[in-house]
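Late entry, evening session. Most of the bench is empty. Finally got around to the prediction I had been postponing all week. Sequence below, unchanged from the version circulated by S.P.
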Amino acid sequence: MDTSNEIDGHGFTRYIRNCHKTQWSSTVTYNEDNRLPYQKTWKNLRDEAADFHEAFTGSSRRTKHLQTALKEAFRDYLLLCYSESVRLELGTEWAPLEGLEGARLIAMEKMRLMPLEARELDNQTLAHVLHRELHGFTLPEQAAEACRFDLSDNGLYPMIQPHLRQGA
């Protein structure tokens, strides 16, 4: 992991990417209705991104580096929401597809990966493999509402806009 506090070049981006290798499948909990708690999930990812920003720069002010951290958090959030849609469509009692397992299932089918290979994909690589799927993915309204303000408030509304329902 790049632990230097230099902010030149792409050091901060590398730092954030190294920190965001969390694999969410073991830490995701669901609501009573067996749905992903969008607000709580976004808040956790957003707070983690802000903590990384503050630890790296020593500043909690909004900057380009916070935008970078929020982009990484949104990518992970989009992956989880996409995986949630796969879980709701294809999950079963014997294969519930929790966390990122739904997204990994699609990556396995698309790239002809073995399950172990799919589990070894970090979030950034998984997002690259599923780029077309994520590009065309529309966030559920509750999921979009959970992150819309934070992204808009930090100048990142154009990033969420393609994932909103028409007219939202």
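Two things to note before I forget:
The CA atoms of residues 3 and 15 lie 7 Å apart.
Residues 64-90 form the longest helix (27 residues).
Will write this up properly tomorrow.
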